[in-house]
Model the fold of this input.
Amino acid sequence: MSTQLRRAVASSYLGSLIEYYDFLLYATASAVVFGKVFFADLDPALATVASFGTFATGYLARPLGGLIFGHFGDRLGRKRMLILTMSLMGVASFLIGLLPGYAQIGSIAPLGLVLLRVVQGIAVGGEWGGAVLMSAEHARSRRGLWAAFTNAGAPSGMVVSTLAMSATAALTSEADFLAWGWRIPFLLSIVLLAVGLFVRSRVDETPAFLAASKEKRRRLPVVAVLRDHPRVLMLGVGVGLAAFVVQATLTTFVLAYGVQQGHPRPEMLNALTLSSACAVAGILLWSALSDRIGRRPVVLAGVAAMAVFGFLLFPMVRSDSGFLLVLALVIGQGVIHPMMYGPLAALYSELFDTESRYTGASLGYQLAGLGAGFAPLIFAELQRANGGGSTTPVSWTIAAFCLLSAVCVLALRETHRRDLTPEPGVPAAAQREGNRG
Done:
């Protein structure tokens, strides 16, 4: 493992951890805090739906971030964009920690929350593609494993964010936590930002981008993606959709659902922290396996398992057993979801040419990410519509998304043996055919 690859992997992992600490901290807060702080004038059930609605706006903004930063990342380089995306995320999260609630400034509070959430979405939308490519394009072998460190940053960020929120909740009273305690984890973002920028500044630009930058470019990256890879882009979106729906179900909707079913908030946060820690190992292990047997078999096994497990998840959560609660989240988030999610980092990188890879990978991943933004909102509305009764419609919805992803996986070619570094003087289309052969 070369020094630059080691730095690239460390930078991608740490950067992803920080970005998702900020982004998913919002998810935790939307489930347990924001409904009371920013939507205090609404019925509790509607406040939960409204809170998840602001959560969804971040996911709506992610494709825009992928498009903007993907364009400049393909034209100017991966590294420059990653410095900017990290800075945007850190500042937006810090400002959320300073934002007054509804009781102080009325309707301006939720509007400010939505605006800062949009900035978060744009930042994380641009971050993922560049972070993945920094590892994938530096790697000469075991690309699935090294690229997966970026995806492992998501549950790592969840661990850190839930620990920060749990510690703050444990050290403050219920009233103090709602009044000001929840703000502390958001304000700490500025410290993480300083650390992340230092690490990221020490990584060189990727060899694949440097090689591609010597070639004359005739088209905009987004035009290249939409003209050369429209089918691949749409199939890529479909492949990742189920993974994101399940991610949001396990980290956001189940958290709110468990509290509604009588589990104490600290118990839910502790279970989420443990399952997120298990997810880090699961992502790396399943991604390493995908280097050996291919991306498709691992992802297919994951969506098949989750389609079944979706019907067991909610009965386990609503039981009175803390053990079954932990087991449900560990199996779902720590074992099955990583099969669906871990290989996506390398898979999206391998679907596109170097000159448009940042744009293509970002668009595919972030459009699929819309599933995570809307799943908690849809599921919360389903629960409200039937009076908080059966969760069977939620389980069937999860199974339907898993079926869609399975069909899309089967329609794609296997990609794990593709060379990401362009050959000088060889057209991209010819190189694609050579890689397929």
Remarks:
- The longest helix spans residues 44-76.
